[in-house]
């Protein structure tokens, strides 16, 4: 009888543990779904940023030509700040998976996505610096400032920010491809 009670207790423990794992897997899937929804939101904001940047950069480099672009740059800055919040939310969703009882593959994929969101956050910081430098450059043109030393410093700042963004974009694309391949191989039934 004692062995039977021990066996029943062990089975109940296994059933409870298994249902807990199912709940944890469900929680991980829900976190990934929420992160994917945020990724769609990110893409929409990114398209808007690109459109506004195109408008802000398609100007005559005269005092009259750059003045309307200054407002566009403010809009771009606001959109990038909005995009930062979305990246932060995506990161939080993927990071939450590390505390769940799910497979190592799911945790590894989530960790890869956290790394990507960290790179996106870095790229947005560089984008804000680029916007600020561009705005300062346009303001110099609008005010007809002839300080060549300041202009050279701004040009260097623009170049550095652009190069950093380009490098981060390449790294992000590479990390996304790695995460996608990992997902396909380990989580989408590609075993």
Helix and strand topology:
Layout: H1 2-57, H2 63-96, H3 104-142, H4 148-186
Provide the descriptors you would attach to this structure in a database record:
191 residues, mainly alpha, elongated
Q: Mind explaining what this structure looks like?
A:
The protein has 191 residues and is mostly helical. Helices cover 88% and strands 0% of the residues. It has four helices and no strands. Helix 1 packs antiparallel against helix 2, helix 2 runs antiparallel to helix 3 and helix 3 packs antiparallel against helix 4. The radius of gyration is 24 Å and the shape is elongated. It starts with a helix and ends in a 5-residue tail after the last helix. The N terminus is likely disordered.
Query: Given the C-alpha coordinates, what overall shape results?
Result: elongated
Strand content: under 5%
Helical coverage, percent range: over 70%
Low-confidence stretches: 1-20
Overall SS class: mainly alpha
Question: What is the radius of gyration computed over CA atoms, rounded to a whole number of angstroms?
Answer: 24 Å
Count every helix, treating DSSP H or I runs of 4 or more residues as helices.
4
Task: Name the helix and strand elements from N-terminus to C-terminus, one letter apiece.
Answer: HHHH
């Amino acid at each position: 009888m004692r062995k039977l009670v021990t066996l029943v207790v062990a089975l109940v423990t296994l059933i409870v543990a298994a249902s807990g794992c199912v709940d944890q897997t469900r929680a991980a899937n829900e976190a990934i779904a929420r992160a994917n929804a945020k990724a769609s939101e990110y893409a929409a904001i990114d398209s808007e940023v690109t459109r506004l940047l195109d408008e802000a950069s398609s100007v005559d480099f005269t005092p009259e030509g750059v003045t309307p672009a200054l407002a566009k740059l403010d809009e771009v800055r606001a959109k990038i700040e909005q995009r930062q919040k979305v990246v932060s939310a995506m990161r939080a969703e993927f990071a939450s998976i590390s505390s769940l009882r799910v497979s190592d593959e799911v945790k590894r994929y989530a960790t890869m996505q956290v790394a990507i969101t960290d790179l996106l956050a870095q790229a947005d910081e560089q984008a804000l610096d680029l916007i600020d430098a561009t705005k300062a450059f346009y303001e110099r043109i609008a005010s007809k400032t002839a300080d060549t030393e300041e202009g050279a410093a701004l040009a260097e700042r623009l170049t550095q920010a652009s190069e950093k963004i380009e490098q981060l974009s390449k790294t992000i694309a590479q990390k996304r491809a790695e995460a996608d391949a990992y997902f396909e191989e380990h989580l989408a039934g590609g075993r």
